[in-house]
Design goal:
The protein is an all-alpha fold and 122 residues long. It starts with a helix and ends with a helix. 10% of the residues are buried. About 12% of the residues have low confidence.
């Protein structure tokens, strides 16, 4: 009787303030904010980083950035037409890579690669 009601009331309190129960994700060293809170799997990137950096070139990075910016323009226009708030670039980037690669580990890997390419500069 009374014990069940107490559990339900406790459940309602948790539902009213989910931010208190949400675990903070561990920040990853060497990953710039805000991506350090988004990226979960960087193990493969750490193993292959040196090899991948050698493969990065200015043309590849610029092509990626151009494609992403074009997709962002389309997404913003779609959000505007639907009356939705536009996604901020870090959130959009993460969602974009998830949509392209479909698997979280690949999304994280290629997002880290792009970030490294941008950091390297021309």
């Amino acid at each position: 009787g009374g014990g069940g009601e107490t559990e339900e009331e406790g459940g309602e309190r948790e539902a009213a303030s989910p931010k208190k129960k949400k675990k903070k994700r561990r920040k990853l060293p060497g990953v710039p904010p805000p991506y350090d809170n988004m990226i979960v799997d960087c193990e493969r990137w750490i193993k292959e980083k040196e090899t991948r950096i050698k493969l990065l070139n200015e043309k590849k990075v610029l092509q990626s950035v151009t494609t992403i910016l074009c997709e962002k323009v389309v997404a913003d226009a779609t959000d505007d037409a639907a009356g939705h708030e536009r996604a901020e670039m870090p959130t959009f980037l993460h969602e974009y890579f998830l949509s392209v690669y479909g698997i979280r580990s690949l999304c994280d890997f290629y997002l880290l690669e792009l970030l490294e390419g941008l950091k390297q500069g021309p």
